[in-house]
């Protein structure tokens, strides 16, 4: 595919049928794993370029995906800073804790970013980070100018491939054995899961641009679960695990942010 494509839910038609379980084609799974090699070099530590934030650009809070941390979004953060955006890390590493607790942490970081810049913040969340981003948005819409999710299954957070499902089972088992700081069974099927579901079903207020970036070549998340009816869907060709560093996705995010006007908290 040549580039990102804005798609309406009507255009996607019968493809929206959500199958029981998610079993990506073998070629998709292979491409997913190979994509890590494609972006690995961009994730290596290197000297950051000093940039001056542009007051005409919105500040951005970046939230990483499951099993990753802020380092995974470093290429995107650097690209956005070079364009003049002030960026904030989430402080999450790794993203494997209780959803409710992590949502609280993202909300605190959102408050700090808004207070420091004096402006509403655009939230960009990758995979589970997009779920945390939507929760923060519906809880604190007064602080958010836009929400952009990348490969985020906000209509069904458990629409994942078999490998990730096994990893979730292992983490919840370790949590039940007393290992601290891990996602527990309550986050998948208990009170925490029900509370999270309520937040995900809540409306994103008018005036907050909500975009869901997804890929039909996603081998980790069932892309159909990324099509939140409240969001504008934008299709890219990236794999799931490369989205945080893929140049195409970074360009899409940059273009979406460029269309926003900075808004003071008083507005």
Question: Helices, strands, pairings?
Answer:
Blueprint: E1 5-6, H1 9-12, H2 26-43, E2 60-63, H3 74-82, E3 87-88, H4 99-117, E4 121-126, H5 128-139, E5 144-150, H6 162-176, H7 185-189, H8 191-201, E6 209-215, E7 232-236, H9 247-258
Parallel strand pairs: 2-3, 2-4, 4-5, 5-6, 6-7
Antiparallel strand pairs: 1-7
Helix pairs in contact: 4-5
Please supply descriptive tags for the structure shown above.
267 residues; alpha/beta; seven-stranded mixed sheet; 9 helices
* Fraction of residues in H or I helices: 25-40%
Assess the beta-strand content as a share of residues.
Answer: 5-15%
Cα Rg? 17 Å
Low-confidence residue ranges: 13-19
Q: What are the secondary-structure elements, in order, as H or E?
A: EHHEHEHEHEHHHEEH
Cα separation of the termini = 40 Å
- Strand adjacency order, main sheet: 1-7-6-5-4-2-3
Count of runs of 4 or more consecutive helical residues? 9
* Overall pLDDT metric: 88
- The total beta strand count reads 7
- Main sheet, how many strands, which sense, barrel? 7 strands, mixed
Structural class: alpha/beta
Shape: globular
């Amino acid at each position: 595919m040549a580039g990102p494509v804005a798609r309406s839910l009507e255009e996607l038609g019968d493809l929206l049928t959500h199958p029981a379980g998610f079993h990506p084609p073998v070629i998709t799974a292979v491409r997913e794993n190979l994509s890590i090699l494609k972006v690995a070099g961009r994730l290596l530590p290197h000297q950051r370029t000093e940039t001056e934030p542009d007051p005409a650009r919105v500040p951005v809070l970046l939230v990483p995906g499951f099993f990753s941390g802020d380092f995974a979004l470093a290429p995107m953060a650097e690209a956005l800073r070079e364009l003049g955006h002030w960026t904030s890390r989430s402080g999450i590493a790794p993203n494997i804790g209780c959803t409710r607790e992590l949502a609280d942490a993202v909300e605190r970081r959102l408050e700090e970013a808004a207070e420091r810049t004096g402006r509403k913040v655009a939230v960009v969340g990758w995979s589970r980070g997009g779920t945390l981003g939507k929760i923060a948005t519906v809880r604190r819409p007064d602080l958010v100018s836009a929400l952009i999710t990348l490969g985020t299954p906000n209509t069904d957070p458990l629409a994942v491939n078999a490998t990730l499902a096994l990893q979730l089972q292992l983490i919840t088992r370790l949590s039940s054995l007393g290992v601290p700081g891990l996602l527990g069974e309550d986050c998948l099927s208990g009170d925490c899961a029900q509370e999270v579901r309520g937040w995900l079903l809540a409306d994103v207020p008018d005036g907050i641009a909500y975009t869901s970036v997804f890929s039909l070549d996603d081998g980790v998340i069932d892309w159909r679960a990324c099509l939140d009816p409240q969001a504008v869907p934008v299709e890219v060709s990236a794999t799931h695990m490369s989205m945080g560093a893929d140049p195409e996705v970074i360009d899409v995010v940059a273009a979406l942010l460029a269309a926003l006007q900075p808004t003071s908290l008083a507005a």
